[in-house]
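dude i think i finally got it to work??
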Amino acid sequence: MKIAREPRHARDNVMRIVFTGGGSLGPVTPLIAVMHEVRRIRPDASFSWIGTKGGVEERLVGEAHVPFSAVSAGKFRRYFSWRTFAEPMAVIRGFFQARRLLRAEGADVVVSAGGFVAVPVAWAARSLGIPVHVHQQDVIPGLANRLALPAAISLSVALKTSVKDFPRHKAVWTGNPVRAEVLAGSRSLASSAFGLEFGVPVVFVVGGGTGARGLNQLVWQSLPALTAKAQVIHSAGIGKTDPAKGMPRYHQFELLTGDMPQALAVADVVVTRAGMGQLTELAALGKPTVIVPMPGSHQEANAAAFSAGGGAVVLDQRQASSESFAATVLGLLDDPARRADMADKMRAMSVSDAAGRIARTVISLADARRKG
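look at this
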């Protein structure tokens, strides 16, 4: 789907903001929170999104009623693949595709929170003189943001300790945005939406839009022990569900979007990977959390930050067994006092008005370009 807009001269009074990012939901959810806040401050603003073809972000962006376009994007792997040698050409194609889209859109500002698709888009914007704002979520900057950052004129970071890792004139600590709808979940609506039993504790497992194979395997192997004492809601990832795992008290889905707030509201314990977008939403909700970070990735540093705060327990997937996984989760369910303490410490990791801080920066950049 391509962005189709009227000529720029016919809409000079409309602020045009282009968001970019994808490949997973991690770069998407905080930007949707920013978009909602921009809309609240400037109801006249218009939005579009540039992402990856067939990416999981397209569904969430579509539910937000935002026009979506896809460009070619490279993927720089941590393992050897002959396909890696073709990636530079993919990025170059994406660059020229993004230039055409940004010119047709008449973009006033481009906003990214990561994902390899953001790299050609950010540099295309830079080549057209369009200001770029990058939001850094993770403790350790990913390769995509490291490649996109030189094209940006401003940068926001989720964690205060990250400011020192970037040029002083660019980096501002804002916290990580949280979608308002995530905070509006209802336990009663969850009970009817998922067909839950009254009085039985709930574990919500979320592995992201693309799923987490190792985490899924731990959950499936632990189901007999878990479902003996709890109900499990499992967002396994697109194409990652296992129809053989149908059993009482186990509710399996590919990807929860509209019902995500309900699943979070009803959960007594949440099990997750360590994407910063997900972790900051859990912090805002005060959810006791078991984190199973992707082994050997930047997620381990994210997990360590939340573990140090006291609101989360971290399990190493390389060492965890189904028995230790089940024991950790059930141990938290059996200890309400510990869960209450963890909930308070998770909330202490949350920053209020993060979306508003970034939104005001984005609006300022767009206004400056329009006046120039």
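The chain has two domains: 8-178+352-371, 181-348.
im so relieved honestly
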